[in-house]
Request: fold
Amino acid sequence: MYRTIGNTGIRVFAIGLGAMPLSLAGRPPRERAEAVIDAALDAGLTFIDTANCYCVDDHDIGHNERLIRDALRCRHAAGVTVATKGGLTRPDGRWERDGRPSSLQAACEQSLQDLGLETIPLYQLHAPDPAVPFTDSVGALARLRDAGKIAHVGLSNVDIPQLEAARAIVPVASVQNRCHVLCRRDLDNGLVDYCRQHGITYIAYSPVGGGNGHKRLPGVAALTEIARAHAASVYCVALAWLLHKGEHILPIPGASRTTSILDSVKAASLKLTGADVTSIDKIDAGLRQ
Ligand SMILES: NC(=O)c1ccc[n+]([C@@H]2O[C@H](COP(=O)([O-])OP(=O)(O)OC[C@H]3O[C@@H](n4cnc5c(N)ncnc54)[C@H](OP(=O)(O)O)[C@@H]3O)[C@@H](O)[C@H]2O)c1
Reply:
């Protein structure tokens, strides 16, 4: 099962690897982190999501990008699309926004170096910065595209008005927002539909609930019942449900363990029945975020 990223012609396996847990505080040792990436690629994944700020703090910026570069280089991996982001900083480990055009340009240059690429296939604005006019940040990405530093522009943590404002400046290939069985904001507010109508890939982040949120899924009865019926995990069921919501949806489950990503890959071949989907659709709104 494959997805095309926006109108770029780039085809990727329908489940991507969210590489963030490999570089935050508490990250696995290097060898284990590389083994997760290796296992993902061996299983057929061809899309890796990263960001310059997936690291422990500002002294460690680019950790995740360098890890991916090294893992891909070791395998001479071709046909893998790496998407990164700029626009956040990590002073003392905090997450802060910096969408100033000069900062985005510098971040992109550093990402090119850390990824060992001449052009970044998909460069995403990590989040709008309230201190900077949004169109200024997007304009910076448009200039990076014109200069050939990035091939395609993506946005993250945006709403429909912001997406429309950006599209007036530059073609937008993807939107990356939080979306999972217990967080359906963009399925309910029309953003997922908007993306489908305009040929934009919707990249679902934290697709099994996020770093701590994923621990809630085994407690959701509808998921455990369906998982039992299919001899699958609740995570796989949650990912298959997202895939069912649109052919333009690309979930990027995170993993710091090989077993997690190898399980998530199976979602691409898990066929939910109509009754399964209805049952998940009806999960008590009280359980949702
Ligand atoms: N754009 C943004 O602002 C933004 C924000 C957050 C995340 N992201 C991106 O989205 C990716 C995914 O989000 P996330 O890592 O926050 O949350 P997630 O994908 O919901 O995963 C959270 C944790 O769930 C566990 N897990 C995932 N699949 C599993 C499976 N099949 N079986 C058992 N456990 C499983 C993993 O645990 P283990 O670590 O134990 O393997 C993983 O670390 C990130 O890696 C990052 O690339 C983007």
About this structure: The radius of gyration is 18 Å.
